[in-house]
Amino acid sequence: MILSRPLHLILMLLLAIAVAGCSSTGGRKKGGGYYKDDGPDANPPSNLDQVPDAVPRIEPYASGANRPYVVFGQRYVPDTSGQPYKQRGTASWYGKKFHGNSTSIGESYDMYAMTAAHTTLPIPSYARVTSLVNGKTIVVRVNDRGPFHSDRIMDLSYVAAYKLGIIGPGSGQVIVESIPQAEIRRLASQGAPAAPEPASATGSLPVLAPVAAVPVALTAEDRK
Q1: CA angle, 41 as apex, 36 and 46 as ends, to 5°?
Q2: What fold, for 30-223?
Q3: CA gap 154, 119 in Å, rounded
Q4: Average pLDDT in the 71-88 region?
Q5: Residue whose C-alpha is closest to residue 38's, from 161, 124, 142
Q6: What span, in angstroms and rounded, lies between the C-alpha atoms of 112 and 106?
Q7: Residue 41 has pLDDT above 70, yes or no
Q8: How confident is the model at residue 34 (pLDDT cuts 50, 70, 90)?
Q9: Per-residue b or e along 141-155, where b marks 16 or more CB atoms closer than 10 Å to that residue's CB
C-alpha cells in the first residue's frame, strides 16, 4: 500500500517517539533499579565496597510495625517468635526514588545503609543474604516492609544490592536467613568482640562484630 506523504511522516514520527521511549526507560537493565523510574544517585559514593555489613545487636521490636497487616488484599503476619527463618527466592533493590522516605518503623530510608525490607521478619532485626549466583554474603538490618510482589522475597538497599552484585540486573536469586536475638545473645555470652555503640542507639546490648563475614556454604540443593 502506498501512503500519502503526510501520513508517512506521521507514522515515522510515532515510530521515532516509541524508540526514544524504549531507550530512555530501558527498565532495570539500563537504569539499574528494579522499580520504574528508580536507580542509583547521580553521584554515588566511590567507597561503596568499604561500607561494612550491618552489625547485629539486640533491639526492641517496633510494636506497631510487627502487627498483622493487609496490602493489596494479602494478609501478612510478622513472626516475632524468634524462630530461625530461611527462605530462597528473588531479592530486588530500591534506590533514589525512595531515599529519605519514612520506613515502616519511622526511620528515614538510606540507600547507602545496609538495610532491607521484608514482609514478615520482625523489625528491626538482622538477616544474612547470600547470592546463589556468586556466593557473596552480606548482613542487613531489616527496618521496612515489602516487597509486596509474589515473585520477590526481599528488597535490599542500594548499597546492599551493590555489595551482593545485583545492581545491574535489578534482582537476583538469594537465600535469606534470619539472625535471631538468641543467636546474638549467644555470641555476646561467648565474648564476641564488640564494636562501638552507635550514637543513636539506646537501651541495647553491646554491638557485636559482624557475625556473617564468612560466606554461607551453599549445598547442592540450594544451587538447584
Answers
A1: 140
A2: Barwin-like endoglucanases (2.40.40)
A3: 8
A4: 95
A5: 161
A6: 17
A7: no
A8: low
A9: bbbbbbbeeeebbbb
Mind listing the pLDDT tens digit for each residue in 178-217? 999 999 998 878 876 433 333 222 233 333 333 333 333 4
Pull the grid cell for residue 48.
561503596
DSSP code, position 3: P
| 3-state SS record for 76-109 | ECCCCCCCCCEEEEEEEEECCCCCCCECCCCCEC
Question: pLDDT tens digits, residue range 10-23?
Answer: 444 444 433 333 33
pLDDT at 38: 61
Tens digit of pLDDT for each residue in 105-123?
999 889 899 999 999 999 9
Taking CA atoms, 109 is separated from 39, 53, 170, 202, in Å, by 14, 16, 18, 20
Q: Is the per-residue pLDDT at 25 higher than 50?
A: no
Nearest-angstrom CA–CA distance, 124 and 144: 8
Confidence (pTM) = 0.69
β strands within the chain, DSSP E: 69-71, 74-76, 86-94, 115-117, 125-131, 137-144, 154-157, 171-179, 194-195, 207-208
Task: Show the CA angle centred on residue 119, arms to residues 157 and 82, nearest 5°.
Answer: 105
**Exposure on the CB side of residue 177, measured as CA atoms within 13 A:** 16
Instruction: Determine the distance from the C-alpha atom of residue 48 to the mean position of all C-alpha atoms in its chain, rounded to a whole number.
Output: 15
For residue 187 the three cell numbers come to 555470641
Between CA 205 and CA 214, with CA 211 as vertex, the angle to 5 degrees is 175
